[in-house]
Amino acid sequence: MTPSYGLAPLARFGGLLATDLRDVTGDPAALESTGFWAVVADFEGRLVCARFGDVRYAPVPAARAAAWRGPDPDSWTSSLDRAAYTAGVRRIRAHIAAGEVYQANLCRVLSAPLPDPERADVDALTALLAHGNPAPYAGTVRLPAHGVQIATASPELFLRRVGRTVTSGPIKGTGRTAADLLEKDHAENVMIVDLVRNDLGRVCATGSVTVPDLCAVEEHPGLVHLVSTVRGELAEGAGWPELLAGTFPPGSVTGAPKSSALRVIAALETAPRGPYCGGVGWVDADRGTGQLAVGIRTFWIDTGIDGPSLRFGTGAGITWDSDPEREWAETELKARRLLALASGGLLPALSDSSCVTP
Fold first, then answer.
1. Of 36, 81, 174, 278, which shows the fewest CB atoms inside 10 Å?
2. Which 3 state secondary structure label does DSSP give 35?
């Protein structure tokens, strides 16, 4: 049975609720047409753009236990266990030593079976996350007939467009408190800012790309991030198709140089990322505005042949200064709170061992 198949399509971002599905396409040129579009871009390149006919302001509803029954807290498994992940970190350091890459983001995908498909409404999960882990780019995209069921609590801006102005807010550097952030975290952030500047420079007017903020500390539930801001003005003739082609996948979740990092990722990761590390958000083509988050802190339902499961990705940026065990602990820190919320349990104590079954 497909979870939530009987529920009506919708999209929710912040205070906006979109219903009355009109069109679904994989053509990014549609984002330059008319109407309000929900957008989901998988890390591997699949694009789903859904145009809705009714868009109104509506607060995120109160969490509804009857509409969401999450996985058993002990049922989560990981595409890379601790030994495989730390070995991957060491392998990336070897690539860095060989001069093939400067930084690469190593991720793992966690999954757990859904015990009650009739109580697997991702919009109800979004409500749980909104109350237990507020995030600036939280939202829902519920298109079960098109294989898209996503609840995100993303803290990271991939692309915001207002007219011809485009802004990105890459995150690099994570700790429990600001005191945990190392020189390595600042260096990694600056490295990715350079990458994002280069990506935006492909589609923005010459000389228009700037960095208004560099390595600002942002507090989020249970952790802090280093966040920078990169901004530019779109070149004449450039729109959403060119913008996505020039910047996707997001630089903060790939590495530098991006092409080399993608090759390293493909060799080390054992599961597709899907919407994790892709882009999730909305475009209002009538107003010339839009906002896509990086698909981190994101859950999605997979309706595989073995039955429906809930998935969630977590990862860390690896540089020459990376310590394999510290990077593993960072992936645990990023996942811990959200997995507990989705499973309906209390927050587990963070330890040196896995908070999920590897």
1. 81
2. coil
Q: Active-site residue 172, yes or no?
A: yes
CA distances from 254 to 25, 33, 259 (A): 26, 30, 9
What is the CB-side half-sphere exposure of residue 52 using CA atoms within 13 A? Answer: 24
pLDDT tens profile 56-80? 999 888 766 568 999 999 999 999 9
- How far apart CA 298 and CA 130 sit, in angstroms, is 12
| pLDDT value for 14 | 87
DSSP assignment letter at 4 = T
How large is the angle between the packed helices 258-268 and 82-97, nearest 10 degrees? 150
156 classed as catalytic: yes
Which residue among the candidates 100, 172, 188, 233 is catalytic per the annotation? 172
- What is the set of domains in the chain, with CATH numbers? 10-343 (3.60.120.10)
pTM, to two decimals: 0.93
At residue 351, the pLDDT reads 37
Q: What pLDDT is recorded for position 5? A: 54
